[in-house]
Design goal:
This protein is of the alpha/beta class. It has one domain (about 15-25, about 35-100, about 140-295): P-loop containing nucleotide triphosphate hydrolases (Rossmann fold), CATH 3.40.50.300. It is about 25% helix and about 20% strand. It contains ten helices and ten strands. The chain has helices spanning about 65-70, 95-100, 125-140, 155-175, 185-190, 210-215, 220-225, 230-235, 270, 280-285, and strands at about 15-30, 35-50, 55-60, 80-85, 90, 145-150, 175-180, 195-200, 200-205, 295. The strands form two sheets. The protein has a six-stranded mixed β-sheet, with helices on both faces. A four-stranded antiparallel β-sheet has the order 2-1-4-5. Strand 6 (about 145-150), helix 4 and strand 7 (about 175-180) form a beta-alpha-beta unit. The protein starts with 14 loop residues before the first strand and ends in a 13-residue tail after the last strand.
Length: about 300
């Protein structure tokens, strides 16, 4: 297996994702369908998850982060790659063999009144429904919970309640979370490490402080610069990075670096050579928070003053 990724602590990961790929076929014809291409929703994602930690995954809509969630839960079959749970590749499991990796547990630890058991779904508030979702996730006593946009439709006060509940349950049951969301401030609040996705690839991964205070990938820097800041002095002091153009189609991604068509740093090398997700050479021998993995030929530290 490959070495742990994401500048994580030196301990054995509970989940190892290696070169995970999911391509959805594009077909033509009604009776005799012929594949004419593929939507490359996830195209070679690798990361580790450690016991008791939360790994946040962020990115624009359509970047593939929700597909990653389905692949990790085996709701979608991977086109290629491996997902090792305690050393066993779960992408190859099915039926009873897949069920054996889950165990049962008792319920009623999510702050809901037991008298609510006879209520209908429409009789619960949004926050209560999210708590029910968490309870369902805990019912099999998992060590890992995949959270795909768990608070996106909730009011801010209810978001805080659910996030605090998740933290409490994590401490009590030693849970590991993969927390997928588009809200950068929420992801930072709950995550130990953060991975930034762009068009099916991982652009940058590191601790929350490394990503939010010392981003080195241009896409991460642009994302952080777009986060609203209430303090007018801070807002005026920071540089706003405006990206031009639209996100390319995952059915026809750019050659080389997928971000190059919107990147202000792009050079010829970016079109011909795909950058690897690795610690930039210039930072390897330097004790700096910028020494975390970034998939950019011209990675450089940049303070963004956000979140």
């Amino acid at each position: 297996m490959a070495e742990p990724t994401g500048n994580a602590p030196e301990r054995e990961p509970i989940l190892q994702v290696r070169n995970l790929v999911k391509h959805f076929p594009l077909t033509q014809g009604i009776l005799f369908k012929k594949q004419v291409g593929a939507v490359k929703a996830v195209d070679g994602i690798s990361f580790d998850l450690y016991r008791g930690e939360t790994l946040g995954i962020v990115g624009e809509s359509g970047c593939g982060k929700s597909t990653v969630a389905k692949l990790l839960m085996n709701l979608e079959r991977a086109t290629a790659g491996e997902v090792f749970y305690k050393g066993q590749d779960i992408t190859k499991l099915s039926g009873r063999a897949l069920k054996t990796v889950r165990r049962n547990i008792q319920m009623d630890v999510v702050g809901l009144n037991p008298e609510y058991i006879n209520r209908y779904p429409h009789q619960f508030s949004g926050g209560q429904r999210q708590r029910i979702g968490i309870a369902r996730g805990l019912a099999l006593n998992p060590e890992i919970i995949i959270c795909d946009e768990p608070v996106s439709a909730l009011d801010v006060s209810v978001q805080a309640q659910v996030i605090n509940l998740m933290g409490k349950l994590q401490d009590e049951f030693d849970l590991s979370y993969v927390f997928i969301a588009h809200d950068l401030s929420i992801v930072r609040h709950i995550s130990d490490r953060v991975g930034v996705m762009y068009l099916g690839k991982m652009a940058e991964i590191g601790s929350d402080a490394e990503i939010y205070e010392h981003p080195t990938h241009p896409y991460t820097q642009a994302l952080l610069s777009a986060v609203p800041v209430p303090d007018p002095e801070v807002r005026e002091a920071r540089e706003r990075i405006i990206l031009t153009g639209d996100v390319p189609s995952p059915a026809n991604p750019p050659s080389g670096c997928r971000f190059r068509t919107r990147c202000w740093k792009a050079e010829e090398k970016c079109a011909t050579e795909e950058p690897l997700l690795a610690i930039p050479t210039r930072f390897k021998s330097v004790n700096t928070p910028a020494a975390h993995e970034s998939a950019c030929h011209f990675a450089e530290e940049k303070a963004v003053l956000a979140v």
